Amino acid sequence: MPVAKVSDINMYYEVLGDGPPVVLLSGWSLADRAFGKLVPHLKDHFTCIRVDHRNMGRSDAPEGPASIEQMSDDVAGLLDHLGHDTAQIFGAGGMGALIAMEFAIRHGARTRSLHLGSPSLKVDNFLAEMMEVWRQLRHLDVRLWAREVTLWCFTPGTYERNRELPAHAFEARAGENTFPSPNSYDRIVDAYVKYDATDRAAQITAPTLITTAGIEDMITGPRFAKAVHDTIAGSRLHVFEGTSHGYGAEAEAEFSKLAVEWLMLHR
């Protein structure tokens, strides 16, 4: 099991493929499930690096508060461990985008290109309240928590046309041990809610692609992504209309095509 000592933790990671490095940062999923449909399109051209963030999966979950800033420094430490001075940083799933954005702020010289999937400069009161409900629900019943989160990730149309897609996402979310303990999930939620890049995101100079679902994504969606786009000079924004937070699955072919083209452009 590949584990690197970075910062104050042992961090689990996977390396697939060969070529220039791309760090794939997911939200609330483990390394071996993250970007499962995208990696086959990338591994013939890139070294794909996937990780379990601190407080998740097979990485350590130290006591005390966690932060997005810590998690971005963990990525920098892993690149040091693997001997990569620079990499393309591909963050998605909301939290993965925050870690990627913070990496580009703190380690700009190491960021060859940046993808931010469902990013936010900071959460609003609605999302903070939603995450607090999720936190309490997960303490009560993990499978009920997984079903609730999954409902917010797909559109009603997807439930009608392709019921198997959210059903599979639910089983994966409920079945994997994403968070080793209730406290580790609490720390992840706290880190997400406390993060604020409002006054710092303009420092990003790396070529940046921002993707988001349409207005049916009430978790993140355009209300956040457009603010990030307005803040990062020269960034490109792509909205997957008619999708929700799980747009990478709902618009799989379009998303994969865009992602591969972006990474190849900056290869």
From TrEMBL:
Secretion signal, residue range per the UniProt entry: none
Pfam families tied to this protein: Abhydrolase_1
Highest taxon above the source species: Bacteria
SUPFAM superfamilies: alpha/beta-Hydrolases (SSF53474)
Domain AB hydrolase-1 residues, every copy: 20-245
Name of this protein: Pimeloyl-ACP methyl ester carboxylesterase
Originating organism: Aquamicrobium aerolatum DSM 21857
Origin organism lineage: Bacteria, Pseudomonadati, Pseudomonadota, Alphaproteobacteria, Hyphomicrobiales
